[in-house]
Design brief:
The complex is a heterodimer.
Chain A (H helix, E strand, L loop, with lengths): L1 H11 L10 E10 L10 E4 L5 E3 L5 E7 L4 E5 L6 E4 L5 E6 L9 E3 L5 E3 L7 E5 H5 L17 E5 L8 E5 L12 E4 L2 E3 L26 E7 L2 H4 L10 E6 L11 E13 L49 E3 L4 E3 L6 H5 L3 E13 L3 E13 L6 E15 L3 E16 L9 H4 L35 H7 L1 E20 L2 E20 L33 E23 L4 E26 L10 E26 L3 E12 L8 E11 L15 E13 L8 E3 L21 E3 L2 E3 L6 E14 L4 E13 L2 E5 L8 E5 L2 E17 L3 E18 L6 E6 L4 E5 L6 E7 L23 E9 L4 E11 L2 E11 L2 E4 H9 L11 E2 L23 E2 L6 H10 L7 E3 L2 E12 L2 H4 L6 E15 L19 E2 L6 E11 L1
Parallel strand pairs in A: 1-7, 13-16, 34-38, 47-53
Antiparallel strand pairs in A: 1-4, 2-3, 2-5, 5-6, 8-9, 10-15, 11-12, 13-14, 15-16, 17-20, 17-54, 18-19, 20-21, 21-22, 22-23, 23-24, 24-25, 25-26, 26-27, 27-28, 28-29, 29-30, 30-31, 31-35, 32-33, 35-36, 36-39, 37-38, 39-40, 40-45, 41-42, 42-43, 43-44, 45-46, 46-51, 47-50, 48-49, 51-52, 52-54
Helix pairs in contact in A: 7-8
Chain B lengths: L2 H18 L2 H7 L11 H18 L1 H9 L3 E3 L2 H8 L10 H20 L10 H22 L21 H21 L15 H17 L8 H9 L10 E3 L11 H9 L2 E3 L1 H9 L5 H4 L27 H4 L6 E4 L1 H14 L5 H15 L4 H15 L5 H12 L5 H10 L10 H4 L10 H6 L23
Helix pairs in contact in B: 3-4, 3-6, 3-7, 4-19, 6-7, 7-8, 7-9, 8-9, 9-10, 9-15, 10-15, 15-16, 15-18, 16-17, 16-18
Chain lengths: 1082, 474
């Protein structure tokens, strides 16, 4: 344990190496109070200075200290800090006490200010590098899942670079930004995607993908507004403070070299259950070029008219019109065939060192990920360097720079998904065995698909011919200069830059169904009498080249003053200024209609359009923070920030926000001090107010155009050589003011039984008022949206962090840590007269903010219900839909928010072997599952396999009760059976397929999110090969899944941002992974 | 560094902070960089014509009308739902068109405001006239489809977020007035530029003919409620289209993915429609030569889809429209000469003017030519097929049946209006008309339900007709 801790402490050690001119040498040994064994890696520093070192493997340290040094501070992870007067002593023998839960832990708070965790009056939670990178997850955001109380990670898919959203204590904004601010090494960086995706096209990755999770030393999450208030307008959604690895903890002398490599295999987490009995067609007839699988039994294909072999001299065979040959009738599991196993390889190297005047860390990494669909993947290369220098006695400086190059090959989803023809492929169609394009003239561009329409594309043809590329090259970093003219004052200036460009290319090859190619119809396919495909000239194709350049400059100036009023009372005052300036430019070039097939360049298109958008933004903030400490028992923190932002209307763009917090360590009271049952207890309370700025725009005119919800393209200017312009349909309120979030937070922390049980509970109550949102307008007003202040949203959170050590012995230890989150996030009211606003999705169903309900809700066509809320069954015997539920009104059909979420990590350590497992449990919350709806409609779902039994509504997929007849009596209508063959297709295609509510599923799940078995090789093996550490880990992610949702992983989602997790529509799949990691330190 | 330099540094820093966030500086930073702050009406002209020709005349309203009127059978997705009358009361159904209609009306309003005598461009009376004519056309579309609709309080933006609904009876005079104003504006226009005029390329005379033709259409629309309707229509027809070359088209379609005819895009993107058996049977019983122009064949046969009971398909089972399949760049008819002649025939018949048969013949002949046949074929068809059917008591029915046949497939909206005005002229066969009901008017839109629900009249689309179709105003 101590050896592992040694390396950890090297990384975590915050002390430094600077030496004063007038020095003396001291030495000493640090041992553990528990077993009297030496502790390596303890940081030893001179109090109030930056002079320090770490103990060696024998627990011994040797340090030059200034002559006037007063006291030494010893700190080590898992141990209580220890402080000793120096006096004239030169040799120290120190015993440190175990402190399993890090009472004296120092955390990085807002604006990079380090504070003792016990002094905080609000909740923070940190995660170590080990927890982040344990399971080889290349995506930083999704690696947080289940590890933080009060934080919900909403994933979209397991595709390379897929976006995810992080909600800290729910959402505060109806349709605005609800994502936390990311701060890397003191510099706020852009983390949100530059583009939205709703129901068409490919996803865009969060820009946090540019960070290599292996490069992170720790993440600290500032959850409440009080914790984040110093960041001003950007703090309303909480802050994720990332500290990257640095050389600060490195031992002096030779550089430490760490090599990490991992290899992980990804597979689709859940394959749909498909029926394997019935062929393409309808009402027992076979039809080609048809999306339904409600046809004859596959075994009866030899009997069908025109294509059946029984009557055409090929008994037992049928003419497969797609293969163009006689075939034995067979059922194919096309979904299983289509997905491949992906592979993620990671290589990382880090060199760090610390010398008398400087320390540094250099890291390089390469991630190469192949997705679970052919031609998808991510290539990420990162390089970083961080260093700090001592410049004389009073000055120091440093920098941190990160470069990344991320290439993504993506897939579209929703309306543009290729999965329509994977999940929906008839079992009689051999997706993987049938050529995906024709022979003959331009055969490559004449695809063979089993169905028509713009979603009828053969997925194999699409994967080979279309592509969606996203390439980002980014640099972010900062440099600082620190001046400490006296003990009590510190001035620091920091200048940072975050700049990147993203280049996207969406290509639809000539012959692609979504760009004008009409796919073959029934008459074009082969038959026994016509063995070649009908000729359709390849048409269409399009190429979209678009990108964005974004540059942020951030300067931060702080002045810190410490003052000890007396022995019991001390205070720290920080005043500062932050300046941020952003410029951006994005552009789009679209070319449609390739002339020469296969030449996929803009210059080969018949029509080109181009568009650009420029943006500028500036904010300037002045702030002050006062922290008072009374007897290390009572801590008071006051802060205020005054922000001025450019994006608000004239004379309405400056705002002041206050916050106050109080921490009371009641175990410091004389009566409770040194109690072994309750060694530590703290209550805390805070209040804060933080705003969020909107974007005010002047009234403008822009290029018009025409379209329809039914059309892929509509009309785009220029048309006939001219363009038409029209006024903006969005009106901005000239009196726009920032929305305001008030937050009250109460918490209690306790540690029991020699610290083997730790408990931390937080109650948080937020009210976001004066929401800035696009209030939808009645069409008859002539406009679509009015951007104004209206409405309120509340969020009440209960968070529990629990740490238990059931077993703690020398060789064996079992640690449980659990995070529990229950958030009630409610839309109190929208604008006057507005009941709900659509956030994402289709006309119906969609995801909405709905007044009076939790945020967000799912909206769509409901089933008809009686006065008592019971489902009404059609009891008109003449109706096609006799015995089935009926259409009701459109309204709320589901709630996206879960009842609670919980992550439980169990860690077992035996000698040098550690096994840890994270279970992630989400209870409640609904999703509209478009994939299940379509698999029912098409008749490809496994639950449509039985088409012969009689049934009542309650027996059907996702039935929501028995239903009642019009007279209120229980539904007793039975359909199906041999005389009623249309019963199943009518139910699943027409009823299940058209009433949105029927495809709303509850998505409770229990996932084994991460498992890691780690061998930390013992020193006796390593020493002969000159290695200081070596670990090998076997890891797994997302395997073992229990859920209420069929066919689709419950963490599959369509769209990005606020709509995420509310609906999926042939959305891209989740993955589960297995891998191994090797980590060597020299 | 001594304290003095530190002080200087602080002063420099502080002053730069103050300067960097002054209101003037922030205004400059927030200045619009992407869109124009003002626009000339000439540059707005293309968009009002495009939206009227594409969104108003040729998209969802037309695609639902063709199913309701049984020119087509819906055989896929939303169109088969329309055929089966599933979800036809949903506010979402026509939300897009409701919003796009008021959108184009609002753009027209901006053009009219800018070209007012006290506006910035009083000289562009041509653009003003076009905007007035298109206001009439789009306003008529809204009220024809929905009945009572906002107008007097509409198009005011945030100044009135909840406009009241006006009666259709009060809007028809407004429509006629806008057409008159449009004619007057265009007549007075000088220095006309044809740039961006996708209909007539700046031809003033043709715009005036189009406005008069529309006047005739909207006069005759009131045949149930105004006994002067036919004679008022006749009063303006002579000033309307003189030949098919005057047709009011949106004719700027291009053979590119983002420039194609709306119906063509709909067929390619969606494949929702098949040929309706009701239309096909009327044509076969008349041995109508236009069949070969109208429909595709399935394995050498015409296979119409039975309205209301067709098998779901995206092609391969039933015949589809050949007009559309060949119509990648076919102009979209907003109003045609043959329609005007049908109006003349009906109006003359209603006013006992016995020259109505000549008008009907002209209408049919023009329609034959319109669909790629010869005038002589039209004459022969009129003489051999239509004339024998014009028996006493059957005249109006056959005029409207001929109009119904002629309107396939791009003029479905007017066929839908005619049926609602004179239901006795056509026998529809969709069994769901009896089971569920015919869609007599459109359900009010989601955007109104969401943001103006208090003002929406409560209507039943299957029972309540609009005012000119014999309904009672709410």
């Amino acid at each position: 344990m101590k050896k592992i801790a040694f390396f950890l402490s090297i990384m975590l050690f915050m002390g430094t190496v600077f030496v004063y001119a007038q020095t003396k040498n001291i030495t000493g040994t640090v041992t553990s109070n528990d077993d009297n064994q030496p502790i390596p890696g303890v940081s030893v520093s001179v109090k109030g200075t930056t002079v320090g070192t770490v103990t060696n493997l024998d627990g011994v340290f040797d340090l030059s200290i200034p002559q006037d040094a007063k006291a030494l501070v010893f700190s080590f992870i898992g141990m209580k800090n220890y402080e000793v007067e120096i006096g004239t002593q030169t040799n120290f023998s120190v015993k440190m006490e175990t402190d399993v839960f890090g009472i004296d832990e120092v955390v990085v708070t807002a604006l990079g200010i380090s504070r003792e965790k016990k002094s905080l009056g609000y909740a923070v939670q940190d995660i170590s590098s080990e927890e982040i990178s344990r399971a080889n997850n290349p995506n930083l955001i999704t690696s947080l899942s289940g590890k933080l109380a009060g934080v919900e990670v909403r994933q979209s898919s397991g595709m390379p670079g897929a976006p995810a959203t992080v909600l800290i204590r729910g959402a505060r904004s109806f349709d605005g930004n609800n994502q936390p601010l990311y701060v890397v090494d003191g510099m706020p960086i852009t983390s949100n995607p530059d583009y939205d995706q709703n129901v068409t096209g490919a996803y865009y990755s969060n820009r946090s993908i540019d960070i290599d999770p292996n490069d992170i030393e720790s993440i600290n999450v500032l959850k409440g507004q009080a914790a984040a208030a110093l960041y001003g307008l950007r703090a309303s959604n909480g802050v994720i403070v990332i500290t990257t690895k640095s050389g600060k903890g490195a031992t002096k002398g030779d550089p430490t070299v760490t090599l990490t490599t991992s290899i992980t295999s990804d597979v689709i987490s859940r394959l749909p259950d498909v029926q394997q009995t019935y062929a393409q067609g309808y009402y027992e007839d076979f039809y080609s070029a048809f999306s339904y699988s409600w046809g004859p039994k596959i075994s009866d294909l030899p009997k069908i008219p025109k294509l059946g072999g029984d009557a055409l001299g090929q008994p037992g065979k049928w003419w497969d019109p797609y293969k163009g040959s006689w075939q034995d009738p067979m059922a194919y599991n096309n979904a299983e065939g289509f997905f491949q196993s992906g592979l993620t390889q990671y290589y990382g190297a880090n060199v760090s060192n610390s010398t008398e005047i400087a320390d540094y860390s250099i890291g390089l990494s390469a991630t190469n990920q192949d997705g679970v669909v052919q031609n998808t993947g991510m290539k990420r290369y990162t390089a970083k360097m961080a260093a700090s220098f001592k410049l004389g006695d009073k000055w120091r400086s440093g920098f941190s720079g990160n470069y990344s190059d991320v290439d993504l090959q993506k897939l579209p989803s929703g309306n543009s998904s290729y999965l329509f023809t994977v999940m929906g492929a008839p079992a009689s169609f051999d997706l993987m065995g049938t050529p995906y394009h024709m022979e003959g003239p331009l055969g490559e561009y004449r695809q063979i698909s089993y169905r028509r329409g713009s979603v009828g594309e053969n997925p194999r043809w699409a994967v080979m011919n279309n592509h969606f590329l996203e390439t980002t090259r980014r640099f972010f970093g900062n440099t600082y200069l620190e001046f400490k003219p006296a003990d009590w004052v510190n001035l620091r200036g920091q200048l940072g830059v975050d700049t990147y460009s993203t280049d996207n290319e969406d290509l639809y090859q000539k012959g692609s169904a979504g760009t004008g190619q009409v796919l073959p119809t029934a008459g074009d396919y082969t038959s026994p009498t016509k063995t070649t495909f009908g000729y359709r000239e390849p048409t269409g194709g399009s190429i979209d080249n678009y990108g964005v350049m974004r540059s942020n400059i951030n300067s931060l100036f702080t002045a810190t003053f410490n003052y000890d009023f007396n022995e019991d009372l001390s205070g720290t005052l920080i005043i500062g200024n932050e300046f941020r300036d952003e410029t951006s430019r994005s552009w789009t070039m679209t070319g449609t209609g390739f002339t020469i097939p296969g030449w996929n360049n803009m210059s080969n298109t018949t029509t080109q359009t181009a568009d650009e958008s420029k943006g500028r933004f500036r904010s300037v903030g002045n702030f002050a923070n006062l922290a008072m400490d009374y007897k290390s028992m009572l801590y008071l923190n006051l802060s205020g920030r005054y922000d001025v932002v450019s994006s608000m209307p004239t004379n309405n763009r400056s705002f002041f926000y206050p916050s106050v917090s109080l921490g009371f360590v009641f175990t410091e009271l004389e009566a409770l001090k040194d109690n072994t049952t309750l060694p530590y207890g703290k209550i805390r309370a805070s209040f804060a107010q933080v705003g969020q700025a909107g974007s005010y725009n002047q009234p403008t005119y822009y290029q018009g155009g025409a379209g329809s919800g039914f059309l892929d393209d509509g009309i785009t200017y220029p048309l006939g050589g001219v363009s038409g312009f029209r006024q903006n349909t969005t009106v901005y309120d000239p009196n726009l003011k920032p929305q305001n979030t008030k937050n009250y937070e109460l918490g209690i922390e306790m540690k029991f039984l020699k610290n083997r049980l730790g408990f931390d509970y937080t109650y948080s109550d937020q009210l976001a008022t004066d929401q800035i949102f696009s209030v939808p307008m009645a069409g008859s007003t002539g406009y679509a949206n009015f951007v104004t202040n209206a409405g309120e949203m509340s969020s009440v959170a209960h968070e529990v962090m629990l740490n238990i050590i059931p077993v703690q012995m020398n060789d064996f230890e079992w640690v449980i840590s659990a995070n529990f989150t229950k958030i009630t996030n409610k839309v109190v009211e929208l604008a006057p007269g507005i009941e709900s606003v659509s956030l994402a999705g289709y006309v119906t169903p969609n995801v909405r903010a709905y007044a009076g309900y939790t945020y967000p809700t799912i909206y769509g066509l409901q089933m008809a219900r009686d006065d008592q809320g019971r489902i009404l069954i059609d009891d008109d015997p003449d109706s096609y839909y006799y015995g089935y539920p009926m259409e009701g009104e459109t309204g709320k059909i589901g709630d996206v928010s879960p009842d609670f979420i919980m992550g439980i990590t169990n860690t077992f350590r035996y000698k040098f072997i550690t096994l840890s497992a994270l279970l992630d449990w989400k209870q409640g919350g609904d999703i509209y599952s478009g994939t299940n709806r379509l698999m029912a409609l098409y008749g490809s779902a496994g639950f449509t396999e039985d088409r012969t039994s009689t049934f009542q509504y309650k027996d059907t997929e996702n039935a929501k009760g028995d239903g009642v007849l019009s007279d209120g009596s229980p539904n007793n209508i039975t359909r199906g059976g041999p005389d009623d063959i249309e019963a199943y297709p009518d139910f699943y295609s027409d009823i299940f397929g058209s009433i949105d509510e029927m495809a709303v599923y509850e998505t409770s799940y229990l996932k084994l999110r991460e498992v890691a078995l780690t061998f930390d090789l013992p020193r006796k093996i390593l020493e002969p090969v000159k290695m200081s550490a070596a670990t090998i880990s076997f890891v797994g992610r997302n395997f073992l899944l229990w859920t209420t949702l069929p066919n689709v992983d419950p963490e599959t989602s369509q769209g990005m941002g606020n709509g995420q997790m509310g609906f999926e529509y042939m959305s891209l799949p989740q993955t589960k992974s297995y891998g191994v990691t090797l980590n060597l330190t020299f | 560094m001594n304290m003095k330099t530190l002080k200087i540094l602080l002063i420099v820093l502080l002053s730069s902070v103050v300067f960097s966030c002054s209101e003037e500086k922030m205004d400059e930073i927030n200045m619009e960089l992407n869109d124009a702050l003002d626009m000339s009406v000439q540059s707005m002209l293309p968009d009002i014509i495009l939206k009227s020709g594409f969104e108003t005349a040729s998209t969802d309203i037309a695609w639902y009308a063709t199913v309701y009127i049984e020119h087509s059978a819906g055989t896929w997705a939303q169109s088969i739902d329309a055929d089966k009358r599933i979800g036809q009361t949903a506010a979402t159904l026509f939300n897009n068109n409701w919003n796009s209609l008021y959108d184009v009306l609002n753009i027209c309003k901006d053009v009219i405001t800018k070209t007012a005598p006290d506006g910035p461009e009083p000289d562009n009376q041509f653009a003003r006239g076009v905007a007035q004519i298109l206001t009439a056309y789009n306003l008529a579309m809204v009220t024809d489809m929905w009945g009572e609709v906002p107008w007097t309080e509409a198009l005011l933006g945030p100044a009135n977020l909840q406009p009241i609904y006006d009666n259709q009876s009060s809007l028809y005079p407004v429509i006629q007035q806008y057409l008159d104003d449009g004619i007057a504006s265009i007549t007075s226009a000088t220095n006309v530029s044809g740039v961006g005029d996708y209909a007539y390329n700046g031809d003033k005379a043709k715009w005036i003919k189009a406005a008069n033709s529309l006047k005739a259409r909207y006069y005759l629309r009131l045949s149930n409620v105004d006994n002067q309707a036919a004679s008022k229509a006749l009063g303006v027809i002579s000033k309307g289209f003189a030949t098919s070359t005057d047709n009011f088209y949106f004719k700027a379609y291009e053979a590119t993915a983002t420039g194609e005819n709306a119906w063509f895009q709909f067929m390619n993107d969606r494949s929702h429609l098949s040929v309706g058996k009701t239309l096909y049977d009327l044509m076969t019983s008349r041995n109508d030569p236009r069949i070969a122009q109208y429909f595709t064949k399935i394995e050498d046969e015409y296979v119409p889809a039975p309205n209301g009971t067709a098998t779901q398909t995206q092609g391969g089972i039933y015949s589809v429209s050949l007009i559309t399949e060949n119509g990648r760049t076919t102009p979209a008819p907003i109003m045609t000469y043959h329609e005007l002649m049908f109006i003349e025939a009906e109006a003359k018949f209603r006013t006992n003017d016995n020259t109505w048969k000549g008008s009907l013949q002209k209408a049919i002949e023009a329609n034959f030519v319109f669909h790629g046949l010869t005038l002589a074929q039209g004459t022969a068809y009129f003489t051999d097929v239509v004339t024998p059917l014009l028996t006493s008591g059957n005249e109006l029915k056959e005029i409207l049946t001929q109009k119904y046949i002629a309107f396939y497939e791009h003029e479905a909206i007017e066929a839908y209006n005619d049926y609602r005005r004179v239901p006795s002229a056509l026998t529809l066969n969709n069994p769901n008309n009896a089971q569920v009901g015919f869609v007599w008017r459109f359900p009010y839109a989601t955007s109104e339900e969401a943001s103006n629900s208090a003002n929406i009249p409560k209507i039943d689309v299957f029972k309540d007709k609009v005012w000119w179709a014999g309904g009672t105003e709410k």
